Amino acid sequence: MSSARPHTPAAPPAPPGANTVVWVLAFTGIVVSLMQTVVIPLVPQFPKLLNADPADTAWAITATLLAAAVATPTVGRLGDMHGKRRMLLISIVLLVAGSVVGALSDTIGPMIVGRVLQGLASGVIPLGISIMRDELPAEKLGSATALMSASLGVGGALGLPLAAVLVEQLDWHVLFWGAAGLGVIAGVLVVALVPESAVRSGGRFDLVGALGLSVVLVCLLLAVSNGAQWGWGSALTLGLLGGAVVALAAWSWWELRTTEPLVDLRTSASPQLLLTNAASVVFGFAMFAMSLVMPQLLQLPASTGYGLGQSLLGVGLVLAPSGLVMMAMAPLSARLSRERGPKTTLITGALVVAVGYGLNVVLMSQLWHLVLVSSIIGAGIGLSYGALPALVMSAVPVSETAAANSLNTLMRSIGTSLSSAVAGVILTQLTTAAGLPSQQAFQVIMAVGAGAALTAAGVAALLPGTGRVVVAQPAAAATATR
Known about the structure:
Blueprint: H1 18-37, H2 46-49, H3 54-57, H4 59-82, H5 84-103, H6 108-119, H7 124-135, H8 138-169, H9 173-193, H10 207-230, H11 235-257, H12 265-268, H13 271-299, H14 312-340, H15 342-362, H16 367-393, H17 401-429, H18 439-461
Helix pairs in contact: 1-7, 1-8, 1-9, 4-5, 4-6, 4-10, 4-17, 5-6, 5-7, 5-9, 7-8, 7-17, 8-14, 8-16, 10-11, 10-17, 13-14, 13-15, 13-16, 13-17, 13-18, 14-15, 14-16, 15-16, 15-18, 16-17, 17-18
């Protein structure tokens, strides 16, 4: 299938306030991604802070992962059906509610509830990208969606030093109150400045499909995230993986036969979507290796000979530039996609990430080494994350934009979960006499990350077509379907 699109009329000038809409949506994406990062300084302290067993407090992280996986495709489909701005606001309300519950928590039960509610807000970024497609003219869409997509990394990178400072200086509950406050600001800005699109698919929601996909994702992600603790050959882990396979087969059968599926598998099987989503899984795997390994390497004692002995604040300051680089790459990603096509941009970004990991195999002994390497990897992520929405949106009708972007976001999340599992195995198998991860373990993970990035580039090279892609109808020409 060629990626070239039929000729479209010249887009009208951007409507008044278009830039404001872009920045409001990007800010909202950063707020949601901050939510994922602010708890990192608290994870080692949760057992003491919440008076709970470490195995129980781990659910404060796992619950968010599962909730996000279940919510993202569901919210995307509902956005296409009933209004993307409406679902965006509902997601923000869930974020604020979860943050308030977390801020009021002193035991593990309410904290898990709060984290689940926060996880349910994870569909904000694909919804924001879809709103941009509906409301912006084509010439502005590329840079806008690249910025929105990069907001995930920006919030993650900037959230760590911010959280570290707040935890060191103030009560830990302030992190959740702060997240709630930012969520309220985002909600007010969306209500005041972001229009509701008239582009809707209507129809009936596929509840059976949503429940079936939820079973698949919960079984898969529980096994992947807890396999190391339970044992990869344990009955529980193997049972969950087997359950995921059986549930996936049943869900696929249903989706192919129902008239209004949650996920249109026939469209998803088109070469462009299938390969884009496959590349997203592998790229998500590659991208997350940096987030897993570099903080540990920075915090290990200098007495090990390879650790850098940094505080959590130091870790955040070293990694923060990578988030700024991701944002800075958004316009370059859009320009490269406009001139050479998003396929070229995705391949270029993946190769840049591979170069960064390759350098990190030999450059990991000085702080500036990790600032340099993380910035190079961040540049590659910024390029690729800007290309993925363009590839997705060029392959689906405007009425399915949110669902398709949400599925692509889910694919990246599955890749990051797999990356976490693989890195965990390597770190526990290659250790020093003191039981700490060895330098070889970090080098192996970086090499695996480079290999995954090269694989993503290879998958992207198989995408059909090489031409430029028009990814949106002009806002004025969009037609509602009800």
